[in-house]
């Protein structure tokens, strides 16, 4: 069986960092992910990150930042104080990638700098600016095969 999710979107709010009674860091935030064919539809997906990665997310991610999340879908139930049962679906992240420098995305509410970014990740290649951009057939060079060309498989 397989339970794997990969998302690219922007944070809707600053991450919220908490600690369990045992001292384990847990960070939560919401990612806004546009749908492929209808840009007017956006899904708001709750993300949960644990331990050291949670602390890094809380320190370096801010509202509006373009972020990639890889993880698994988790559905859990709980009971409210009024006795009503609720069901929550969230992504538990195994890997979080910061896809742009601080200050280049939406409104960053905390002060950040290039040196802060460099402490977490290496400088991204310049072609990463195109990451997340939708492409069409005109963007791709298609090579025509000659009749004499052999197919490698």
Order of H and E elements? EEEEHEEH
Low-pLDDT stretches are 107-123
Sheet-strand content, in percent, reads 35-45%
What's the CATH H-level homologous superfamily? Nucleic acid-binding proteins
Task: Predict the CATH topology.
Answer: OB fold (Dihydrolipoamide Acetyltransferase, E2P)
Query: Major beta sheet, specifics?
Result: 5 strands, mixed, barrel
Per DSSP E runs of 2 or more residues, the count of β-strands stands at 6
Number of helices: 2
Envelope shape: globular
**Largest sheet, order of strands side by side?**
1-3-4-6-5
Shape-level CATH architecture: Beta Barrel
Structural features, described:
- Mean pLDDT is 79; it is low at 107-123.
- The protein has one domain (5-126): Nucleic acid-binding proteins (OB fold (Dihydrolipoamide Acetyltransferase, E2P)).
- Strand 3 and strand 4 form a beta hairpin.
- It has helices at 51-60, 114-120, and strands at residues 5-11, 16-19, 25-34, 42-50, 66-79, 85-98.
- 11% of the residues lie in helices and 38% in strands.
- The protein is globular, with a radius of gyration of 20 Å.
């Amino acid at each position: 069986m397989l339970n794997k999710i990969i998302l690219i979107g922007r944070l809707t709010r600053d991450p919220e960092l908490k600690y369990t009674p045992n001292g384990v860091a847990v960070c939560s935030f919401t990612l806004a992910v546009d749908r492929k064919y209808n840009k007017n539809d956006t899904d708001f997906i709750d993300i949960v990150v644990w331990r050291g990665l949670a602390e890094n997310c809380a320190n370096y991610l801010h509202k509006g930042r373009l972020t990639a999340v890889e993880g698994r879908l988790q559905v859990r139930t709980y009971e409210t104080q009024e006795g009503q049962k609720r069901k929550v679906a969230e992504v538990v992240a195994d890997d979080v990638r910061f896809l742009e420098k601080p200050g280049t995305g939406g409104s960053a509410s905390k002060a950040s700098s290039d040196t802060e970014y460099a402490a977490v990740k290496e400088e991204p290649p310049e072609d990463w600016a195109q990451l997340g951009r939708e492409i069409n057939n005109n963007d791709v060079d298609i090579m025509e095969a000659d009749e004499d060309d052999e197919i490698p498989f």
